[in-house]
Structure formats: C-alpha cells, structure tokens
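Shipment paperwork, digital attachment
Item: protein structure file
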Amino acid sequence: MRTLPALLLAIPVLFPGLAAGARSTAGIIVLSAPVPPAAANPKNWPLDQMASMMRTHLDLTLKEGVAQLTGDYATSVSTYEQVRLEILQMADMLSAGIMAQFPSMFNGSLSM
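Attachment content:
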C-alpha cells in the first residue's frame, strides 16, 4: 500500500519541472499547470466550469486508484465507469469550445 504515496511524493524528484506547480494536500501531491487550459479559450471554456470538471476527474481517478490498490475491486470498477462517463463529458465541453472558437472550420455536423 506504500507504492501510491511513494510515487506521488516522487513526482517532483522524477519531474523537476512540475515541482513549481505542485503542492501537497493531506500528503498527496496536487499538480497544477502553469497556465490553466481555460486561458487558451476563456470565452468558450469558463475557468470555473473547467476547474470543476478537472477536479471531479482527478477526485474520481484517485478514488478508483485507491480502491484498486486496496483490493476494493467492486468500487474500482464502478468508479472507473464514473471516470469514463465524466471524461466523455469533458471531451464534449472541450470540443464544443473549439467549435465555438473556430466556427468556420466546422460544417455544423457532429458526425465523423
């Protein structure tokens, strides 16, 4: 059970460039990007919405990882499904923002 905390604590050592954007919360390293992705498209990716989605994604991913590492496989599987659905919602938000930012690049069809 010491593998995950050891790995999280090793992140600044393994990736020194990330150390400046990392802070410790309850013994867990939390990384933050130097420039939030919302800054690339603030009109279509509101910072509060993007931050909320990313926080939810990270919280669910951590819950899934802890459940897997502690042998709580039922919780791991059910949480994985929550992560999967949540990341699809995030992809939809990001895609919609790109389409809104560059409408002339899209023909209005969402099919591929």
